[in-house]
Amino acid sequence: MTTLALLRDRLPDYAKDIKLNLSSLLNDQTLSPQQLWGTLVATALASRQTELSAAILAEAAGQLTPAALEAAKAAASIMAMNNIYYRFTHLAGNPEYATMPARLRMNVIGKPGVEKADFELWSLAVSAVNGCGRCIEAHDAVLKHAGVPIEVILQAVRVAAVVHAVAATLDGEAAIAQAAG
């Protein structure tokens, strides 16, 4: 089984900064273990990189309760839908779109099965990966209203950025290997 450490070690020399950042994030104490591993799971799934997602899911199973693991997966899933819809309503340039109901089921946001702030943090991190400004603003506002410190919010986004960079590097290396062989 591939572990996160093995994937990190496989990153090429040009991605040394990504390797170092991943190690630092895994040892940082800014996020609680649930926040860290939930963010790792949600953003790995959002990255759509199969090997990275499998490694993180395997390790997260020993770090998260079953309910937290399901909630992190739910954050990736619901935000995959919401980020497309709300990014469209934001970027389309038609203000009428933003006034209309989404008519999409989103019950998991109201009852995620974990602390609401943790689910919002994971949703924010996935929204950062998916590039949805409207969702980033909405989840950031909820987190600030809940009293989540800015350092926690930024750390979750750092995790998202590094996970995305690992996924992009692994995919790039796979493409290089395929082209060479």
Entry keywords:
181 residues; mainly alpha; AhpD-like; 77% helix; 0% strand; globular
Short structural summary:
The protein is mostly helical. 77% of the residues lie in helices and 0% in strands.
Layout of SSEs?
Elements: H1 4-10, H2 16-27, H3 33-47, H4 50-60, H5 66-91, H6 95-99, H7 107-110, H8 116-130, H9 133-145, H10 150-180
SSE string: HHHHHHHHHH
In the residues, how many domains can be counted?
1
Beta-strand share of residues: under 5%
Q: Which blocks of ≥5 consecutive residues have pLDDT under 50?
A: none
How many helix segments?
A: 10
CATH architecture: Up-down Bundle
Q: What class do helices, strands and sheet pairing give?
A: mainly alpha
- Examine the coordinates and then state which fold CATH places here, giving the name of the CATH topology: AhpD-like
The CATH class turns out to be Mainly Alpha
What would the average pLDDT be, to the nearest integer? 96
Helix content: over 70%
CATH superfamily: AhpD-like
Radius of gyration: 17 Å
> Largest beta sheet, briefly?
none
Shape category: globular
Distance between the termini: 24 Å
What's the count of strands?
0
